[in-house]
Amino acid sequence: MTGGRHDISDTSRDPCPYIIVYDIGAAFCMGAIGGSIWHGFKGYRNSPRGDRFAGTIASVKSRAPVVGGGFAVWSGLFNAGDCTLVAIRGKEDSWNAIMAGAATGGILAARSGPQAIAVSAAFGGIILGIMEGVGAMLGRLSSDSYKPVAPVLDLPAAPAPAANSSAPEDSAAAPAPSAPPKRFFQ
Amino acid sequence: MNSQIRRLASAPLLRKSKPDSNDDGMDLFARALAAQKAKAKAEASAGSANANSNAPKKENQSKPDDLDLEEEITPEEEERRRRWKEQSEQAERKQMAGRGKGIAAVAAIALAGSYAYMGQATNEDKETGFSGHHNRVRKFLNMGAKSVVEPPSVKLLPDPLPEPYQRPYTLCLELNDSLVHLVWDKDFGWRIATRPGVNQFISYLSRYFEIVIFTTSQNFVAQPVIETLDPYHYVMYSLYRDSTRLMGIKHVKDLSCLNRDLGKVIVVDTDPENFQLQPENGIELKAWKGEEGDIELSKLMKLLEEMALLATIVNLSDLRPLLKSFKALSDSPSDPWSGWVARKEQLRADFAEGERRASNSGTSETTISAPAAEPSTVASLIGSITGALFGGRGMTTPQNQQPAAQPGSNVSGSSLKRTNLIDLIEHAGKEEYALFLKEQKEQVKQMEEAKKKHEEEQMAQLQAMKDKKLKLFDYMMGAGNEPPAAPAAAAPAPQQS
């Protein structure tokens, strides 16, 4: 059974309901690893000299899963919001991600009153906007390597037409196309 | 004292104030001090009252509600607490305001800086003054907005190849749901199903058309699919979503940017909105969602083959009227084959009519006045070609073999039976396809060898680059892009530098 996405455009991500679970796990791993480094460092710095290793381990044990959990919650809410918006709007563009980021920020600040919700939602939306923008930029910059390139032909008289632009990644200098059958084209 | 503090630390926080007051537990500590003082006072007075009381004071057995909270708050204490709370709230508000001001300042500087940058005088536009600057800013922003929407250039494809290699017509194919179908499931992840007949479709039609895969998929998704689908590069070029034009939410294929003569381009897609800018060039194909027994591709292949043969024999410079004529006759927009069959019948009848007229009016006539109310270019062309080209010569098929003309009889059209052009192209198509099937094994072998050779060349190139020992900086300066230098040219260079 295919997932819920209407226009399957990105085969590097699982389709919609499954991506929520997948990304929660991925975000937890990211947060746990990053939190281990951060809190390991902090635990090392903040423990007495004879006890540094134990301090590091204790700090990591108690705080890194919390950081991972925070990342996981953020990612779960964001993906749930994103999938919901895709299903509601029926289109797939960057606005879904931005609005889902704002919703996530807002939900996570829901206990602190309307002003905090507004500020947090704005920050979430801005962060997602920046991420989507950077992604789009990278996509446009990398599209140069997919440009169509004319095949290099071995013509006896004229010099071979130069293959344009940067070194093509693959499939560019394909074997020269065969001449069409002459039978009916005279 | 220590034991009391430890007891405090383990006691539940009994907060009488608001939850977000930030007094760092001073309230509780102050209360505990006051409670202790009161207790000491009470004990002193009680101790003096009953000096030989035999209730030992067991400190570690007292319960948390030894903290008598309500009775011990004196007015000065109250005042002090209120002032402390006010001060801390004020300090916090000032801190937040300071942070907000800092962010606002940074944002203002960033906006001002980008405004100044965007409005810089360029080589083309040196207007001074604020309005000039502002116009340049607006132009900059417009260019940015347009670059998202428009195709990256007006020449998406390289120029057509020189004559023997360039096919007369161009065919743009969509990938998703036309040639392949992407499927996801929990156990295997993403998989690609290829439509029945797709390999024949691409390899056979590459004899008549320059095949371009113009898809609305992203480039990083579609490129591996095309590599797997077409390992021998029958597909000349591939264009992806970044080459389409964004209109609303639809990614529209703008054929005017293709750098090809629009009269010779056909685009095939499952969604007619994807070629809404040039609907006369498009053929709609039924979408395929992976079901078995799909024959659309083989029908389309036959259609395109016969159309290409017809157009080439008649030397049609513009395919669009032909497309329009048979699309108008289809049962439904996604069933072009029915329309083509109907159109062929019409053309067959027109040709026979033209033939009849040619033979009736004798062979000296080289042109035929087209029958009245002839809607299509093709039929009138057939009519005129009948007289001009085929007058006196019969195109015969094995079924219609005619005995050699009698000596002395005029080689006039009336004695030889000319084959209908439509029969001709159908027969030619069948022959060509049979030949293709026979040659296919040979061709596959040749393609495999060519591919292997190509891979070896690439490995040799990689090895040469490794030997040159380029570092990252050299790549950034564009070192890897030159064609391999001829040895004679390379030799003097190191000596000069």
Automatic annotation (TrEMBL), chain A:
Annotated transmembrane regions: 20-41, 116-138
GO biological-process terms attached to the record: protein import into mitochondrial matrix
UniProt subcellular location: Mitochondrion inner membrane
GO cellular component term, pick one: TIM23 mitochondrial import inner membrane translocase complex
Ranges annotated as biased composition (Low complexity): 159-176
Membrane topology listed for this record: Multi-pass membrane protein
Keyword Transmembrane helix: yes
Primary location recorded for the protein, binned into one broad class: mitochondrion
Gene Ontology molecular functions: protein transmembrane transporter activity
Annotated segments matching region Disordered: 159-186
Pfam families: Tim17 (PF02466)
Coiled-coil intervals: none
Keywords, alphabetical: Membrane, Mitochondrion, Mitochondrion inner membrane, Protein transport, Translocation, Transmembrane, Transmembrane helix, Transport
Family the UniProt entry places it in: Belongs to the Tim17/Tim22/Tim23 family.
UniProt protein name: Mitochondrial import inner membrane translocase subunit TIM17
From TrEMBL, chain B:
GO cellular component: a single term: TIM23 mitochondrial import inner membrane translocase complex
SUPFAM superfamilies, per database record: HAD-like
Bias kind Low complexity: ranges: 30-55, 398-407
UniProt function note: Essential component of the TIM23 complex, a complex that mediates the translocation of transit peptide-containing proteins across the mitochondrial inner membrane.
Family in the record: Belongs to the TIM50 family.
Renumbered residue ranges of the record's region Disordered: 1-99, 352-373, 391-415
Domain FCP1 homology: 164-307
Coiled-coil residues: 430-472
This protein's record includes keyword Protease: no
Subcellular localization, as worded in the UniProt entry: Mitochondrion inner membrane
Composition bias type Basic and acidic residues, residue spans: 56-66, 78-95
Composition bias type Acidic residues, residue spans: 67-77
GO biological process: protein transport
Organism: Chytriomyces confervae
Protein name: Mitochondrial import inner membrane translocase subunit TIM50
InterPro entries cross-referenced by the UniProt entry: FCP1_dom (IPR004274), HAD-like_sf (IPR036412), HAD_sf (IPR023214), TIM50 (IPR050365)
